[in-house]
Amino acid sequence: MNLPKIHQFEGVPLGDDQQGRANWVVLEGYFKPQCGGTVCVNLIRQPVSHDFGQDCGFVEAVPSRTPYYRGDPIYIHVKAPCPPTSSPDDSAGTTSQGGDNAGQDAGQDNGGQDAGQDNGGQDAGTDAGTGTDQGASSSATTPS
């Protein structure tokens, strides 16, 4: 799938207020046709530094890969600062708040530093939210 044409959203508020949530629902609607009538990707609001528009206004949509597939994250860049969102509503799509530490937190949730160190390595999360295990496993030693 490829990004829908959503350039008309530039600067449109996508914050956690009533107007922002209503605009988010409209934005989700642009992703539904490719998914058979539902939102089949993870739209993630991610505040970024930008010079125009209002706080939490739409800047761009950035897929994790092109073309993207069902379940892939699509980062919706909005002008920072952007207030944290409440829990996702009951719509078909998944929304969440991304930030500077979002990838690091996700990497740690998937076998973070403690688990990595126990196995002789260190798990480091990336901004994309994936963890990579670095280091070689060492054989277990028996205490004397």
Describe this structure in words.
- By secondary structure, this protein is α/β, with parallel strands linked by helices.
- It has helices spanning 18-29, 102-109, 113-118; strands at residues 42-48, 58-63, 73-79, 94-97, 122-125, 131-134.
- The strands form 2 sheets. Strands 2-3-1-4 form a 4-stranded mixed β-sheet, with no helix packed on it. Strands 5-6 form a two-stranded antiparallel ribbon.
- The longest helix is centred in the N-terminal third of the chain and has 12 residues, at 18-29.
- The radius of gyration is 19 Å and the shape is globular.
- Mean pLDDT is 71; it is low at 86-142.
Rg result = 19 Å
Sheet with the most strands: spatial strand order = 2-3-1-4
Count of beta strands: 6
User: What is the arithmetic mean of pLDDT?
Assistant: 71
Question: Which segments are poorly predicted (pLDDT under 50) over 5 or more consecutive residues?
Answer: 86-142
